[in-house]
Amino acid sequence: MDHNEVAKVLAESLPYIQKYRGKTIVIKYGGSVMKDEKLKGYVINDLVLMKCVGINIVVVHGGGPFISSHLKKLNKKSIFIDGLRYTDNETMDVVQMVLCGKVNKDLVNLIENYGGKSIGLCGIDGNMLEAKKASLKMDLGNVGEIVNVNTEIINNSIENGYIPVISSVARGNNGELYNINADTCTFRIAAALKAQNLIFLTDVPGVMTDVRDPSTLVSELKLQDIAKMYKDNMIKGGMIPKITSCVEAIESGVKSAHIIDGRVPHCLLLELFSKKGIGTMIY
Amino acid sequence: MDHNEVAKVLAESLPYIQKYRGKTIVIKYGGSVMKDEKLKGYVINDLVLMKCVGINIVVVHGGGPFISSHLKKLNKKSIFIDGLRYTDNETMDVVQMVLCGKVNKDLVNLIENYGGKSIGLCGIDGNMLEAKKASLKMDLGNVGEIVNVNTEIINNSIENGYIPVISSVARGNNGELYNINADTCTFRIAAALKAQNLIFLTDVPGVMTDVRDPSTLVSELKLQDIAKMYKDNMIKGGMIPKITSCVEAIESGVKSAHIIDGRVPHCLLLELFSKKGIGTMIY
Amino acid sequence: MDHNEVAKVLAESLPYIQKYRGKTIVIKYGGSVMKDEKLKGYVINDLVLMKCVGINIVVVHGGGPFISSHLKKLNKKSIFIDGLRYTDNETMDVVQMVLCGKVNKDLVNLIENYGGKSIGLCGIDGNMLEAKKASLKMDLGNVGEIVNVNTEIINNSIENGYIPVISSVARGNNGELYNINADTCTFRIAAALKAQNLIFLTDVPGVMTDVRDPSTLVSELKLQDIAKMYKDNMIKGGMIPKITSCVEAIESGVKSAHIIDGRVPHCLLLELFSKKGIGTMIY
Amino acid sequence: MDHNEVAKVLAESLPYIQKYRGKTIVIKYGGSVMKDEKLKGYVINDLVLMKCVGINIVVVHGGGPFISSHLKKLNKKSIFIDGLRYTDNETMDVVQMVLCGKVNKDLVNLIENYGGKSIGLCGIDGNMLEAKKASLKMDLGNVGEIVNVNTEIINNSIENGYIPVISSVARGNNGELYNINADTCTFRIAAALKAQNLIFLTDVPGVMTDVRDPSTLVSELKLQDIAKMYKDNMIKGGMIPKITSCVEAIESGVKSAHIIDGRVPHCLLLELFSKKGIGTMIY
Amino acid sequence: MDHNEVAKVLAESLPYIQKYRGKTIVIKYGGSVMKDEKLKGYVINDLVLMKCVGINIVVVHGGGPFISSHLKKLNKKSIFIDGLRYTDNETMDVVQMVLCGKVNKDLVNLIENYGGKSIGLCGIDGNMLEAKKASLKMDLGNVGEIVNVNTEIINNSIENGYIPVISSVARGNNGELYNINADTCTFRIAAALKAQNLIFLTDVPGVMTDVRDPSTLVSELKLQDIAKMYKDNMIKGGMIPKITSCVEAIESGVKSAHIIDGRVPHCLLLELFSKKGIGTMIY
Amino acid sequence: MDHNEVAKVLAESLPYIQKYRGKTIVIKYGGSVMKDEKLKGYVINDLVLMKCVGINIVVVHGGGPFISSHLKKLNKKSIFIDGLRYTDNETMDVVQMVLCGKVNKDLVNLIENYGGKSIGLCGIDGNMLEAKKASLKMDLGNVGEIVNVNTEIINNSIENGYIPVISSVARGNNGELYNINADTCTFRIAAALKAQNLIFLTDVPGVMTDVRDPSTLVSELKLQDIAKMYKDNMIKGGMIPKITSCVEAIESGVKSAHIIDGRVPHCLLLELFSKKGIGTMIY
């Protein structure tokens, strides 16, 4: 590409930068799209760029595959019931170590490799995520649900110029620890921060009316259309918690929620800094 | 250009943004490159973009052609001696009206059309530019030279998020007004602000060893090479005050000074946000 | 006058200073009372003094006679319809140049001659005055009416110790410029700033029941008495927009509005720092 | 006096206000000039006015006559040796009660009657004046000399808009209390505050070459001339500690020290806000 | 006591410190418990400690016995009617001198002996306590009642790390001074500061159902039980204004009011930093 | 213990609180003294108490035993050479997970159980610890040495009221991670923070001239005596890096360094809040 075209592209990014500057965007970075180091680099580059142009970026990450793989090394099987990991005390220790110690700090490290300032937090720090045992049909051990979000430590980080990276581990009243679904965690944090946008980086192109056919991708989805899609059985599997989180986020005041394909290079810039976007926007 | 390329271009701008973010850049916007409305739009777009990504932009403008044209309407001839306008009291009034009232506020207006915040100032405001009658061989009337720069009002503007746009009209000890060469004005302001960079938007491609041949453009010029160029008679005419200003600016602590072609679309982004740049960088 | 009397006068100014200290006063300085340099000096001296004792001074100026005189030099006639200047594009340029470039910066310069700090602004700066084409019976070109006042740039100036001097030129949604009646402009700014007082410096002694007879000056006028005066046909000509502005200002929360004779030396101090005042106070 | 003259006087005070605005002036208000209630009113009025126009006023007061009078009521004689009060423990209690409890708070009360904000302090508050027993030829009991001045509490008061009124009672290392000469106290506080001016309100016209003849008043006195005056025996009695304090204050960085006649109505304004002044200025 | 026990005691104080940290506690230090120097030392030590661990301490003091004793030295009798001192002008002077000059500054001095920072104030300073003549059956001279409390000067002191010590002398509209009951004064200040707690240091163990029998001490008293105690005639004499003040304080938003025995060493720590407390807590 | 003794103990802690209030103390909490949950509770209680009374507490922790135990579960042996763990990439991952994910966040959690505010950090966060590969005789893999400490993120945490808890994992220039000796880490952080004190919580009573005989404990050790002790072979084994760190810390400006027995209940309070202390103080 020649220089003039480069300059033109940069120049045309102005309205997008102006649109998001000073706003808060919470990004869920799923474990399933963290495996490819090159793609990871694209995501991190974009996060640092967005922070750099004045957007308040908050990252919530998952890490399921890394937990499963470490459990396997310890000869422990991963058991999932309705998409939730059965979490006994030993598993909880591994969840904590892998998420808060490894995945989290590795992301912080990568952000700093790209010249950003970052801080790795979890729900324990500053009592950020207060939780209790999740009320489920089956006892899944230390699977919890968030009761309250204390945003002080996140806001301090943002004001001081850091990108906070947050693991979905929470603490109970008596200091007991809980494994929280990262999607829910993301929407709760977005709502508490009164964020403008919520973005899920996933391993699908977005919401599709036929999950086997990418051409059925729905670009925009109004809140009121979702009920019908549920009825028509168009929302299934792992997409359910994501869409539920999007809906609840919007009902809590978030302006729009985006489900996009984290496997596309620079998917964040494509979604936010171009007219059409690449995934599904719910508003 | 397809979306992926756009995203790639944006992503690759990160190191440049990081390089200039939080730094001060003083830009001389010459009257000779303000005539084409479309080019003017490109320049303003780039200024707003640069401010938006965290660069402290200060604009000093000229406006010679507009002064001459207004004088003509008043049936007054423009007289230049050694490149300086002969400025009797009546001319000084026109200089003041055209620069501070028209060219200045029109630039402010344009910046706001592009979504930026701007304020139009001259050397009178906040006693910013203190001057005295220039000591020249001939008496040119109210042609002055700067004695002192008070940066308070500029710094206030920057801190509050505005792009200050400055006319090169200064005030003397007793309130008499002076017409100041805008190039000199620019370097004095840059030096007083301890700016990192100084950029001259001109109507030539940069410093050329043969002014008739653009292919002789010198991309980089070290301070120590300039003396030799003067000796070899390679620097002539209107380029002399620009290069002199660049040299003095660098000697006052400015890191690099750039002379670029304001007629090239997005010349500012091309110079700062790409590896090679398009004009001459003196350092 | 001997020293003891001087001291006594100063000492007795205390309650007046205490009354206005920390309050905001918006002063309309009309073009008709700017012609005498000595009187101008008195006004400026008083403005700087008032700022100095802690009053937040904001000056809005007119400049009609200067515009007409410059138009004449350009062989263009001034046309007024119902007291409003017919403003085609060429006239608008002159309005802008004369007000923002000459009258405005000359006032700033004078304030600094008296040791004050000042900044010259117009409605374009910081998008201060948002306007649209005035809805009038006849098309008067670029005559506008204010839609919104953004006080940020005025408040910044006050907080940093400057006296903002404001030209009544405003900008439209798309950057088109408008000529605004300076009286209306003054009251809109006073209302937006939640000023305590509004003062019109005019070339008449104040509101008079018989305009030919200064002894019929009305010192105080309650809002409720004005309707009757209109009915009795006692308010006429150029006094109408001033009184209308005063009434609207008071209805917007300004405590009192004063119409005083700018031709009386130190009229501002006489009005504010003595028991009786010299003009008409509306409250 | 007619209104126009009043306005003229006020207008002409501008350069004086500009000269002292933002500066710190420490004023010693001697007990001997506190007896006439009307004169006291003039002094307080002027203090509040000066504070009101932006001067940082600090008052240090004496109160010898009031101490003596209260001691007399308790059937205790006042004994003076070399101008210093013999201060046994019982006397110290009375000094403390009369100065800190009565004279001090009465001044604060008066200042508030005139619409000022004031706070009554002594050297005990905030450990402001650290002292030790004075090393004198004779043991005078609790007569002390200042070892250190902690300005924090004074500066806090000034910043919050109060006029601090200070009694010359100090505390020793172990909490023992000392009676300090108020003149010395004043200069030490002025020096610690890096005050611009120091003013002694006394019951004489100023420094006179012949104390019996007011016409021998010396208006200005340079530091270097004082040694000669001492040699010529022109400085005597109660003037000695005052002049010594002035000299030391100036050597500590105070710009000028003034000895003026507190019995003249509005003496402070006369000294500071007129060309000639009324007493003696040492610089 | 051995070191391990000391450490255990300190460690166990944590929940109490956490309970009161950042809260405001107003303490009435009565003149009757100021006589024993050793006990005074314990009280001061505890005040400084409490301030040191982050509690905002405000002290209001009495001083009746010292006033009476000084009046006696002046051959003036103390006359009390219904527990209030008959206060003619001469007595008012003595009240002012003894409270503001002696008792107040001596407490400040003691606090500084223990390493605290303190400032001695009365109702005159910063116009803190606005009062009028009390409406009583008999004319008691300058006995006043509080009309308004201006907390600015108290809050400034707290924020700057000082313990304000306050004498119960107030000022009227015209600067006349009033002697205020210190108990009432304390509750008014507590209410104005929205204090969390109010503590009366008295010379009795607390509220007793039989004042002659300490074993009838009531540890906790709910607001609703007090009416009944009044009816049963269990509250008498000097306890009446204290309980009335407690009740009004709680009705004004203070969380709990405590009446404790100032003659018990470290009574403040015993009341606040132990489970049971030593006096009566009303809530 | 009865209440009066409790109050006495608390009261007597005042001078110690005053001594450390507002100062920074860096505490190395070694893995060897973290095993007993009850002792851990005592340490945490004391940390929160110290923070609560205004001491800026920073905790650096080890965790060797937990690393070894987790490696064992993964069937990996721990290899130590000269007291340093051989750290290949797989081991580094475990070090990171166990320290940053488990030990660190568990300490944060405990602090919050005791009512404190805490944040868990490592050298990656905010690029806090910049390191390079340690230059050792043998290649030990990712064992690093600190090149630079960026204190911004620690200072932010302290100012916002948090106890920062820090894992000794650092990052290299290119994002590679290093295992750092926690003792060295502690002293480097203490030096960078210009801390007043450095405390090592160890599993020995302190420095003993005969390590087998606790009665040979040296209570105080001057810097100049240490060289002699080395010569006399009195400092051995694990004590060497601790004493070296103490010496270097003091040479960098830390006032005193303490080696104390973390197995003694409330050892921190015993060392800091009593006259004698329990371990060895080096100064």
Automatic annotation (TrEMBL), chains A, B, C, D, E, F:
Q: Where does substrate bind?
A: G63, G64, R85, N179
Q: What is its EC number?
A: 2.7.2.8
Q: Which reaction does it catalyse?
A: N-acetyl-L-glutamate + ATP = N-acetyl-L-glutamyl 5-phosphate + ADP
Location of the Aspartate/glutamate/uridylate kinase domain = 23-261
Any GO MF annotation of the entry: acetylglutamate kinase activity
Q: Which UniProt keywords apply?
A: Amino-acid biosynthesis, Arginine biosynthesis, ATP-binding, Cytoplasm, Kinase, Nucleotide-binding, Transferase
Cellular compartment(s): Cytoplasm
Pathway stated in the Swiss-Prot or TrEMBL entry: Amino-acid biosynthesis; L-arginine biosynthesis; N(2)-acetyl-L-ornithine from L-glutamate: step 2/4
Going by the entry's taxonomy, the superkingdom of the source organism is recorded as: Bacteria
Which SUPFAM superfamilies does the UniProt entry name for this protein? Carbamate kinase-like
Q: Pfam families under this entry?
A: AA_kinase
Annotated InterPro entries: AceGlu_kinase-like_sf (IPR036393), AcgluKinase_fam (IPR004662), ArgB (IPR037528), Asp/Glu/Uridylate_kinase (IPR001048), Glu/AcGlu_kinase (IPR001057), NAGK-C (IPR041727)
Q: Describe the family membership recorded for this protein in Swiss-Prot or TrEMBL.
A: Belongs to the acetylglutamate kinase family. ArgB subfamily.
Q: What does this protein do?
A: Catalyzes the ATP-dependent phosphorylation of N-acetyl-L-glutamate.
User: What NCBIfam families would the database entry show?
Assistant: argB
Q: What is this protein called?
A: Acetylglutamate kinase
What is the organism of origin for this protein?
Answer: Clostridium aromativorans
